[in-house]
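sorry for the late reply, my laptop died twice this morning and i had to redo everyting from scratch. anyway the thing you sent over, i finally got around to it. pasting the sequence first so we're on the same page, its 221 residues, then the predicted structure underneath. double check i copied it right bc i was rushing
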Amino acid sequence: MSGNALRMSHLSPKQLEVLAFIEQFTSAHGLPPTRGEIAAGLGLKNRQGIDQHLRALAGKGAIELTPGISRGIRLKGSSSASRPSSEARFSSLPLLGRIAAGAPILAQSNVEDRIQLQANLFSPHADFLLRVRGDSMKDADILDRDLLVVHQTAQASNGQIVVARLGDEATVKYYRRHGDVVRLEPANAAYQPLEIDLRRQELTIEGLAVGVIRTGLSHAR
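ok and here's the structure:
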């Protein structure tokens, strides 16, 4: 039995339950859960207990934890997390501020800065960062002035958090589609969902949220 398999065999029932929730949430939403989402999903009130379970899972080789990143939970079984640390690579990712009207999402006019990040921290891979403005996604632990890590793609599944463009405005919301109607749902009860009829309005999916960064950034040289 490998060392990793041996550590995995020593998980407690509660640790296995937390690990299963992380796997299911990541599969359904395309990004790992926050500690609050784990607590809510498992019906637990004590976030400190969640932290203890996560540290135990990391110590036993089931996950990796990245300090300073809100959704910094990495399943060890994912292809990027299983790479040897000696192969870690860094990418200089564009940080987007306000999106220029009519410009492609990665147009130079949208780039506020460039940030150096380890390429294998996120799955799917990160293509750009977007500075969050407002609190419409606060209950998803995405706060005003956070840096949202985004994988560029035009495809999205129900329940994923997307960067969507409506005309000249970009927004971050949960994506839900039923036939020709898309609902962009906030994670804050103070805001109303946006409902788009694709037969009458144009909606562009610019990417999927794969992480959130608050601290510990270094500027690319």
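The chain has two domains: 3-75, 89-219.
thats about all i looked at so far, will dig more tmrw
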